[in-house]
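Annex B. Sample input.
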Amino acid sequence: MDESLSTMTRKELNHYIQTKREAMRRAEMMGVENEYRVLERQVLIAECYLIDLSLIEIGKIYKIISQEDHYFKVEYIKGIFAWGFFVNGDEKESAIPVSMLQLPKQVR
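Annex B, continued. Sample output.
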């Protein structure tokens, strides 16, 4: 990739995400699990740059997108990562891409 995700326009980011999702479909059809997972993470990271970080409230608990009954309490934001704790989790402080948080109505 010639350009950093952080400097891409919304249009460029959406094109990048679309391209990666197409590659994910191909990897899934070919049964290449590791390639699929790498592409999935690339999409998650790119989606972070489409999110308005002001929608994320410190101290609030958010549902994790596409994981039933998983919740995350945000302690602070650093870059494109929300730092905090999984509700009912055994882990210490964790960081997840902000694109994993189910936020109020947002434009992606």
